[in-house]
Write a structure and sequence with these properties.
The chain has 272 residues and is of the alpha/beta class. 46% of the residues lie in helices and 15% in strands. Helix 3 (84-89) links the parallel strand 3 and strand 4 (94-97). Bound molecules: 2-phosphoglycolic acid (PGA).
Length: 272
């Protein structure tokens, strides 16, 4: 199974020069012989996407966008948006979708997300799909039903895909889709759920999607589920030991190359 370590830079850093430095520092410190089963990825903001992708083009580090347009996978009159085709052209091979900050500040819902999933599929852009409950959901023991609702964006996308492309879409979900479980209350707070809680949620996510795919196609795919929310070098060894955690989506700590690579090394050592 592949282990994924992904840095979500959010709206950071402030300048092109700082983004360049960040890349250089990561490149200086990455292990030379990264096996194929150990994947590193960074998600810079769109303004830095092209420069970061260029600097990383001969390295094993993959590049992801943080979002794509729901309205069109190519071009159109959608001021402020950036399409799947455009981020791909800028050097991204993946995109984050459904991050809680997009859900919260841009009122992103399943209708938007189903469209975005379809657009990513049309451009063969991999998707890191973020799901997670709020503190209120968590306290009311609603986590699993909230996640089921968020995951139903895939069912909705499947309905929207043309019938002759449905099989290809199911294959795409198995090959080019990663789920990141990020409890909203754990993002940037220093708090994380217990390992047992994360394990239960990850198993639930895998079962939800596997049951759905098996029902339609008869195949039982292996699915990748990452944990995100306050991952740091101190808690990484504990998280990495849990078999249902296939890697990490890292915000704050990914802006510190030493911490980012320390977390990566801890996961890679644990999962090899
Ligand atoms: P954090 O952010 O690691 O700073 O908590 C994670 C994320 O939002 O992806």
């Amino acid at each position: 199974m592949t282990t994924w370590i992904i840095g979500n830079w959010k709206q950071n850093p402030a300048t092109q020069q700082e983004a360049q430095q960040l890349v250089e520092q990561i490149l200086e410190q990455i292990p030379q012989d990264l096996p194929n089963s150990h994947k590193l990825m960074v998600a810079p903001s769109n303004i830095h996407l092209m420069a970061v992708a260029k600097a990383l083009q001969d390295s094993p580090i993959l590049v992801s966008a943080q979002n794509i347009s729901a309205h069109s996978d190519t071009t159109g009159a959608y001021t402020g948006d950036c399409s799947a085709q455009q981020v791909k052209d800028a050097g991204a091979s993946w995109t984050l979708l459904g991050h809680s900050e997009q859900r919260q500040y841009h009122h992103e819902n399943n209708d938007h997300l189903a469209q975005k999933i379809c657009n990513a599929f049309l451009q063969d852009l991999g998707v890191i799909f973020c799901v997670g409950e709020t503190l209120a959901d968590y306290e009311q023991d609603q986590t699993l039903s909230v996640l089921d609702h968020q995951l139903s964006a895939f069912h909705q996308a499947f309905e929207q895909i043309a019938s002759e492309e449905k099989n290809q879409f199911l294959q795409y979900i198995q090959d080019r889709m990663i789920i990141a479980y990020e409890p909203v209350w754990a993002i940037g707070t220093g708090k994380i759920p217990t390992i047992d809680e994360i394990d239960r949620v990850h198993q639930h996510i895998k079962t939800h999607l596997q049951t759905w795919i098996t029902k339609i196609s008869g195949q039982t795919p292996k699915l990748t589920v990452l944990y995100g929310g306050s991952v740091n070098p101190q808690n990484a060894p504990m998280l990495a030991q849990c078999p249902t955690i296939d890697g990490a989506l890292i915000g704050g700590a990914s802006l510190k190359p030493k911490d980012f690579l320390q977390i990566a090394n801890q996961f890679f050592a644990s999962k090899s």
